[in-house]
Amino acid sequence: MMRIKYAFLCLLVWCFSSCHSGKYPENVDGTDSLLFYVNPVSTGFLGRHVLFHQGMYYCIQGWMSGIYLRVAEDVTLLKEKEFRNVWTSADPSVGNIDDAELHYIDSKWYVYFTGNDNNLDNRCIYVLENDSPDPLKGTFRLKGRIDTDKENHVAMFSTVFQQDGRLYLVWCGWPSRRIYEETQCIYIAEMENPWTLSSERVLISKPEYEWECQWVGIDGNRTAYPIYVNECPQVFRSLRQDKILLYYAASGRWTPYYCEGMLMADASADLLDSTSWKKCPVPVFSSNTADKLYAPSIVCFIPSPDETEYYYLYKVRKDLEDMFISLEKYEVCMQKVEWDKDGIPILGCPQRQDTLLRKPSGTPRANND
Questions:
Q1: Among 223, 232, 204, which Cα is nearest to 298's?
Q2: pLDDT of 270-279, one tens digit each?
Q3: Which pLDDT value is given to residue 48?
């Protein structure tokens, strides 16, 4: 009965989610226009993760053998800031850096990223630590590789969150080495410290619905073998803080079917019990075909500067050509979080990009000159 009620809730969220377009505010002069922005806020190279900390937005990017940061008080101006290299790998086995996230845990900065030795079957998660109050200062040091399982299966797209004084790692991984197909699943484990797991990994999501298992593009482009995808997990909470919401990207990123799914668990539940997590049976964020905005996903939630509102960043495509070879054509957009009656975000689909949107509450106007 609970599963039926949850499925019904998800269907309601999906049905009432709209691709509404905002209205242009009347009488917007040159001064007032500093309060508004238009999507996209950046190209796809902005990075997939932005962290708000003490009035500043930190955007992180892993590239080649380095980790790069940019910072701004106005999240819509991150694209104008220079990326600064804060760490470079000296170990050739820790290369092809990607999927970086920045977190502040127990008064220290930690960077989680994926690296490999030029063999994609050896992708794994690494952690950097910096004890400086400012992540652009001090020194990031490699704490090492996180051993996510005894067989060292592929692990990538990691994120961390704290609940009731316990620290958890969530990531995308393989259940086993690929042979004729590849399946990317979502796992969770508890952490002894920010670089060491204290429990076995627990599978909480695998591609099972049709909308999670698309791997052939609309133009027929496909990978050499089937790849079924659950990846890029991000953790958020309901408005009343009583639910843990885990968003993830589903289906092949090289297809227009790429979309966002969601798992939900009670905040008081045993998060290492796979039955605590309930999957929404429909996507919670998908294409706006009317405005030709495709494959929206890889969401990242951030508060407004005064922390009275929440927004979500996401990546989206505006064309269906060369999706397999032109992943860099993704753009980064931002929308305000709207909530349903149960305090669950309504994501819907991307708003049309000619819409003038109000900047997050508390955004400093002085920095927009």
A1: 232
A2: 999 999 999 9
A3: 78
